[in-house]
Design brief:
- The chain is an alpha+beta fold.
- The strands form 7 sheets. Strands 2-11-10-3-9 form a 5-stranded mixed β-sheet.
- The protein contains 25 helices and 24 strands.
- Helix 12 packs across helix 13.
Length: about 675
Amino acid sequence: MTRSIQAEIERLRDEIQRHNTLYYVEARPEISDLEFDRLLQTLTELERKHPEYDSPDSPTHKVGGEPISGFTTVPHRLPMLSIDNVYDEEGVREFDVRIRKLIESDAPLEYAVEYKVDGVAVSLIYEQGRLVQGLTRGDGRQGDDITHNARTLLGVPLKLRSQHIPQTLEIRGEALINNADFAHVRATQVAAGEQPFANPRNATAGALKLLDPKLCAQRRVRFFAHSAGFVEPDRFHGHQEFLSFVAHAGVPVTPRVKVLTGIDDVLTHCQMLMEQIHELEFEVDGFVIKVNDFEMRRRLGTTSKSPRWVIAYKFERYEGISRIEDITVQVGKTGTLTPVAHLAPVEIAGTTVSRASLHNRDELQRLGVRIGDWVVVEKAGKIIPHVVRVEEHRREGHEREFLFPQHCPECQTHAVQDEGGVYIRCPNPNCPAQLRESLRFFASRGAMDIEGLGIKLIEQLTETGLVRSFADIYRLKNRRDELINLERMAEKSADNLLVGIEASRARPLWRLLTGLTIRHVDSRTAQILADEFGTLDEILKQSSEQLSAVNEIGPVIAQSVYDYFHSPIGESIVAELRELGLNFGTPVAPRQAGVLAGKTIVVTGTLQNYTRDSIKELIHKEGGKPAGSVSKQTDFVVAGEKAGSKLDKARDLGIRILTESEFTALLEELRQSL
């Protein structure tokens, strides 16, 4: 019986830690908060009845122990240095030039790119897999011992769950309070008659300096790992490998970290991350760009105050506070229903803001926003304003919840949610709102670039029935008299518009593909398809599998393209535009099949005779598909020096692994066999 109780306690501890990892690290919880609380309560009760089986690693001890008398200052084994900042693309490019000059290389380098979380720097030290110490950054040379509070950080395991853990593993990262929890903290402070914190960072810093860990636990402080500190023995070769290990061990890492080759791809990725800021539940103030390779970092070294191998690419953040006067829903070009907050006008960064997108129904629920709420609105960099959080402590009781519509507000068609996605759409292809928005996008500078065809004119054209499709735009030359009779339209304006429409017929194929508003197809994807196949007719011949084999396309985009062009609407649009003489592209020069035709190949590690781009180009030229991640569909992996987690995964899956020389020999063998 004794053994069964002990076994049940261990089982519960493992189960609770598994659910903690699923929730905080992998963002895919399997049980509700109530079910989790019941598991924790069952374990707590068993440990109370059987104290002989208590353990300092038990998740029940994360709620905090007894208050401490004060803080002890502890030297860092490796200094926690600050990071140099840049504020524009030029500064990022200068950083790249400086790095390549120091290592005497013209080849593009691998950089890890991640959000710069606006939190408090913390170091977690594990000995033999057990959390033994937590330190603040302090002055960079020494910090305060906050172990009692570090044990309460949400998602941080007291015992790592991985095997082959280094004897000493120092994980550095940011402690933070997410926006929803911060709103609750402020509301609680105001209810208690206290002065509320100014921002989440101040609340986090204050929580970590509390002497009573139970009070720190009430603030719901989280942790994201972003760096390696002192590691002994050190077996990691790169940043990506280190973060993968840490995440596998159960520690949350900064979301959306990606390794890219070349500074151009880094800057493109930063722009994409900027556009996704509204999806985050915490505050960021830029991006961190790091050399991925640890040996290269050691060669680069540090200055007196900062490492040479990392830069913070920061953007200006401007905030304002306003009241939500109403929430409406807009219908986009692909039928997406987007809630929009109508704000009392507020000046942010020199511009008056009166509207902010709330993006989707899930975002509304995450923010907990109501009509009448006071909200913090942020404008970061060049992106459109977005609502950061609700000022819950300012609620007066008359605020109204917004019910997301079940039908399209324009045509009343029942809305449907994307399978496995968050967006809700109007499925009616004849929806007037979708027509207006798709025409506006088709005519925009990023697509067919039709001068003079703006949203006001499009509204008139659709309301009068002059334009009901893309093709109708090109038929307007036969309806010039009706065009002239439109409001604010004279002969000269009409003729200028018709000239612009006529000029757009010759736009390159990628612009046409962009303008057709195919789901998941942006201008970059359109250019890849046009470059690969040359003509629209050639694209139409491809199966979804053949489209997916194109580098950077993938199965989701491929299926969307295939479905569009093989749907009755897509076929009709193509037929009409063909008849009207639009540019459907130019055939590309025929390619030889290539000795790697049909093969999916992953390259990892540092190669001697190829840059990452040159070997990918070679694989592509020989008919193969260079892929970025290892899966069951991978045919073989080319592994250079210091290959990391991709090599481990290839071994686990039993995929053939080639050295660089073996890859070269294989190519030669295949060529000779032709």
